[in-house]
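P.,

For your records, the input lines for the assembly:
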Amino acid sequence: MLVRYLLAALAAGLFVGILMTPVHYLKLVPLIEHAEIYERGGHGSAPTHEHRASLVSSADAHGLSGHEAGRVVLVHGPAAAEGEEGGASPFESRALGTLTANLVTGAGFALILGAVALLAGHRITLRTGALWGLAGFAAISLAPALGLPPELPAMPVADLAMRQTWWITTVALTAAGLYCLVLKRQPVVRAGGALLLVVPHLFAAPHPADLSSPIPPTLAAEFAVASLATGALFWVLLGLSLGAAMDRFVGTEA
Amino acid sequence: MTTDTHRIAAATSGTRIATGLFALVLGAFFVWGAGFAHSAALHDTAHDVRHAFGFPCH
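Structure tokens returned:
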């Protein structure tokens, strides 16, 4: 029964990981690639810099032409040779890497969501799946995004380890807060849960001193909204798939 | 009879918690690998997904 529980969670996560990959390519990867033009533009050699700057000078250039997109991928490769982290992926194509990462992330979050439900003694079903998914969205996408908005390459950022620490703390406190607020009955525990939701935002997320950025603000805003919308879709699909898989493969108990 | 039932209930609850913790650790390991590990190979493979999910990156 419990092995089937794990396999059902794994299957749901892999399924959503596959589903999300084309969505990423529709809404997010073009914006990331667009940002990488600016990223390269900052420290590229002079002639290519000028050339590229002219390519993206129009305000809404992120409908990248095939030619332009191809150029961006080429640009991403040599970046590794110049010491910038990049190009070390064992996968030939960027899309394959994204698919793999989506599969692993989907499976990971499905296992975590299934584990939380199991430990809390609740069943995720198709009827309640979307709500579980939205709780995951609130804890893992929305709450950390309030302090650290989804960022594009080349945006100014503070120290990575500090941001990761703030991110993980915020996610953990928000998840605990939601658990107390939604799944507990006692008023005191619920009040404590509400408090836990607020606490991480009283401590400022790490931000760099210098906010000047080569990325146009409109591009950054567009990416932040697209990232959150995609995240919401991911989590609702994950909750629904998890519920459907539990209904289908795991009996009424467990 | 009742003790048997109780013992079974306790055992299932024990396995339930063990399975839950196992799933939690495995899931966290996956997400850590895709979203947080500082390895260059993992970073480059998952680069776009890290940005997409809003994981702290670079």
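Two observations worth noting. The helical segments of chain B are 2-35, 40-45, 47-53. Chain B touches chain A through 38 residues (CB under 8 Å).

Regards
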